[in-house]
């Protein structure tokens, strides 16, 4: 690449940045002028933006940009001077010019010369209808005419300034925010690295605190030593000491006094250094964190224009109002929010807002209003998108449910409003009978819900017939930092994100009840299942004998459970450190972080943990949490593993054994049972013969070949009652064979007692 080509490439990149900033100003200003064409401040800002783009295009030699910006500027100046009143067709044409300028500045997307000529001719007709009969000037001629008027050609004696000198124009060389701050481009990887380093720097400075405490203790010890030496000196004054002894004592007093003074001075310096270092590290961390945060307005670029254009294409008048534009949100969250917000806005325009005629008949203004509000709430970004349209036709939803065979007619007739609205989020569900360019395929709300859930958020739809609909979205404010409750489980620290915590509580033994063989406690008018975090996270259970149980109540949409932990450490703001990709997805864990003392804490994936709870419930392998009363631990119960592919038989055996006092786990087939036997300890195995994946005979054979399990008692319960079947089971290694044909409660329980005794060890 030649130096000239490199120079041109650099200039075009600068022009592209300038065009991106100025077209945003034009779009916002023109949409405001559409509502009130006489607003002087918006006319001024749009005119300046067009003028700036014209100058920038001239500098880099983009004649098409000069032509388009020039006619736009003419139109805006005419409006400023009162010679032209901006009508909708003028706003449409100016917005079209804004789009053309952005295309001109985008590499490989520039419009053709015919498009530019057509646009210049269009603006000419709008500015002077009589000019329609006069052939319009070509873009090149227009550029040359303008150059002759505004910038006379330099004489031979005074050569023109080289293009390079113009390229450093501040207008092109930097981008600025609305506050005038300079904006630079930095990769996300570098920002993440900076945030990681700053968090570690903050942790390292916090580790100075124990050293300071030690130094203070040392200073006190030395002060005590100096007082002790002075007391010794007082007592020795009554004694007759040799000159050498007196000199040695004086030397000791002098050295101790000097060391005490030095220690005091250095201790003060260290204390000052630690305070300054922690302050600067905190500022560094806060600044690095702020670099990842951007105003919510960044995701709204073009949305106001999109709503306006879509409404006009559908014959509707629609206005978008935005509140909370300056709400700070993580960059990654903003990027992932753009698509869902676009879906919801298009949905509101197409489905929510009525036509002007319908609105006037309903006593509403002809112009529909969509309001988008962003705010912070408990570490979450809360978005409310509402419209003043007609709401959702619930009866049409009900009919569509029946037509699509999603529910029988009698069931659909009994569905509540909340239940009906949830059908709108199903894949392929739409209230449109035909597919259009805007809607009808049933992918909009389904995609919104999917994207929001990827952000660990939630979306809810509410509506009022004839008055409009409201979407309520909650997503984490940042994916880089999470406010969490740190707890202790199996002598390890784990963090639960506060956004998923319903409450924390201390449970007394009397508060825990047994419902259908599982532990529950009463919370907000309902029984909530109680699960041990040590079982979920595969940590050793606590051997403590505390009277109360520490419980974290977690919620994800409709699912709610209490998770029993050993200790509450406290709330912390944690910088998320992604796990090494080589680990893959770690069950129930989303990421890691560092605590103030430098120790590692794992951040719990609440949604994944709730799935783990459901899995344990479905397999019947949920362990009971030991409850202590008067500091006396009850005798351990004997554990029985029931393996059967029949849910009915499995549940019957489980309830019989539970009622007799045994601790029971279940498995759905031989493979599941074999995995349970290898990972947990049992006193008895009860298994069926015919099961998928691994039958009972193979399971017993594997067990008898295992050194740890070969002595475990085994009972076979099978439908097969023939002698050869019985002999086959016993030959495989079973200790007892019970036919289901002669099965009854006492027979099973008597056989269990015969094999392993009573339920208590």
From TrEMBL:
Residues 639-755 form the Response regulatory domain. The modification 4-aspartylphosphate is found at residue 688. Its EC number is 2.7.13.3. GO terms for molecular function: kinase activity. SMART domains: CheW, HATPase_c, HPT, REC. Residues 218-269 form a coiled coil. It is an enzyme of class 2 (transferase). The modification Phosphohistidine is found at residue 51. Keywords: Coiled coil, Kinase, Phosphoprotein, Transferase, Two-component regulatory system. Residues 481-615 form the CheW-like domain. Residues 4-108 form the HPt domain. It comes from the Bacteria. Residues 240-479 form the Histidine kinase domain. It catalyses: ATP + protein L-histidine = ADP + protein N-phospho-L-histidine. The keyword 4Fe-4S does not apply. PANTHER family: CHEMOTAXIS PROTEIN CHEA, SENSOR HISTIDINE KINASE CHEA. This is histidine kinase. It comes from Pseudomonas umsongensis. The lineage of its organism: Bacteria, Pseudomonadati, Pseudomonadota, Gammaproteobacteria, Pseudomonadales.
């Amino acid at each position: 690449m030649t130096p000239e080509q490199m120079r041109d490439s650099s200039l075009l990149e600068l022009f592209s940045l300038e065009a991106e900033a100025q077209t945003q100003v034009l779009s916002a200003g023109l949409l405001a002028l559409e509502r009130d064409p006489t607003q002087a401040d918006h006319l001024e800002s749009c005119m300046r933006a067009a003028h700036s783009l014209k100058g920038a295009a001239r500098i880099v030699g983009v004649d098409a940009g000069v032509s388009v910006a020039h006619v736009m500027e003419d139109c805006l100046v005419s409006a400023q001077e009162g010679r032209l009143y901006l009508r909708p067709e003028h706003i449409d044409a100016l917005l079209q010019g804004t789009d053309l300028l952005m295309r001109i500045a985008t590499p490989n997307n520039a419009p053709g010369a015919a498009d530019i000529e057509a646009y210049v001719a269009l603006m000419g007709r709008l500015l002077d209808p009589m000019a329609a009969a006069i052939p319009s000037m070509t873009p090149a001629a227009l550029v040359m005419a303008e150059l002759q008027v505004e910038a006379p050609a330099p004489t031979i004696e005074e050569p023109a300034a080289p293009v390079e000198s113009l390229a450093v124009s501040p207008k092109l060389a930097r981008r600025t925010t609305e506050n005038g701050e300079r904006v630079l481009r930095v990769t996300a990887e570098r920002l993440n690295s900076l945030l990681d380093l700053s968090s570690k720097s903050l942790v390292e400075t916090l580790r100075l605190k124990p050293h300071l405490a030690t130094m203070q203790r040392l200073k006190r010890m030395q002060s005590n030593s100096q007082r002790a030496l002075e007391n010794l000196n007082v007592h020795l004054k009554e004694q007759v000491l040799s000159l050498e002894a007196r000199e040695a004592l004086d030397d000791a007093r002098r050295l101790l006094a000097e060391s005490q003074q030095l220690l005091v001075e250095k201790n003060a310096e260290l204390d000052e250094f630690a305070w300054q270092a922690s302050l600067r590290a905190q500022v560094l961390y806060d600044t690095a964190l702020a670099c990842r945060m951007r105003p919510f307005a960044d995701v709204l670029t073009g949305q106001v224009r999109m709503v306006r254009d879509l409404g006009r294409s559908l014959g509707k008048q629609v206005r978008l109002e935005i509140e909370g534009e300056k709400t700070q949100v993580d960059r990654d969250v903003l990027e992932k929010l753009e698509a869902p917000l676009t879906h919801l806005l298009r949905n509101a325009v197409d489905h929510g807002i009525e036509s002007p005629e319908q609105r006037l008949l309903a006593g509403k203004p002809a112009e529909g209003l969509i309001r988008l509000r962003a705010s912070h709430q408990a570490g979450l970004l809360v978005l409310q998108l509402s419209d003043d349209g007609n709401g959702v036709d619930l009866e049409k939803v009900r009919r569509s449910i029946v037509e699509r065979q999603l529910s029988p007619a009698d069931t659909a007739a009994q569905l509540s409003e909340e239940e009906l609205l949830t059908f709108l989020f199903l894949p392929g569900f739409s209230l449109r009978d035909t597919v259009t360019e805007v809607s009808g395929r049933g992918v909009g709300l389904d995609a919104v819900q999917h994207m929001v859930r990827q952000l660990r958020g939630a979306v809810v739809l509410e509506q009022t017939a004839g008055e409009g609909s409201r979407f309520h979205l909650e997503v984490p404010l940042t994916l880089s930092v999470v406010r969490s409750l740190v707890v202790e489980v199996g002598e390890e620290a784990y963090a639960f994100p506060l956004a998923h915590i319903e409450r924390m509580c201390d449970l007394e033994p009397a508060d825990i009840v047994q419902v259908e063989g599982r532990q529950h406690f009463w919370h907000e008018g309902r029984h909530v299942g109680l699960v041990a975090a040590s079982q979920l996270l595969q940590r050793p259970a606590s051997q403590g004998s505390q009277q109360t149980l520490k419980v974290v109540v977690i919620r994800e949409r409709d699912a709610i459970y209490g998770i029993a932990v050993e200790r509450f450490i406290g709330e912390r703001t944690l910088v998320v450190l992604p796990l090494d990709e080589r680990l893959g997805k770690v069950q129930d864990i989303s990421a890691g972080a560092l605590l103030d003392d430098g120790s590692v804490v794992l951040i719990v994936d609440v949604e994944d943990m709730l799935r783990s709870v459901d899995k344990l419930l479905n397999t019947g392998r949920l362990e009971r949490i030991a409850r202590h009363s008067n500091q006396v631990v009850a005798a351990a119960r004997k554990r029985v593993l029931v393996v059967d592919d029949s849910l009915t038989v499995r549940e019957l055996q489980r309830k019989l054994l539970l009622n007799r006092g045994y601790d029971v786990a279940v498995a759905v087939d031989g493979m599941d049972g074999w995995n349970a036997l290898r990972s947990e300890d049992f006193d008895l195995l009860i298994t069926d013969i015919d099961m998928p994946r691994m039958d009972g005979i193979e399971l017993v054979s594997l067990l008898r070949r295992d050194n740890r399990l070969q002595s475990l008692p085994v009972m076979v319960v099978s439908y097969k009652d023939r002698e050869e079947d019985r002999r086959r089971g016993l030959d495989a290694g079973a200790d007892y064979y019970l036919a289901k044909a002669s099965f009854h409660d006492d027979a099973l329980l008597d056989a269990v007692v015969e094999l392993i005794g009573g339920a208590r060890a």
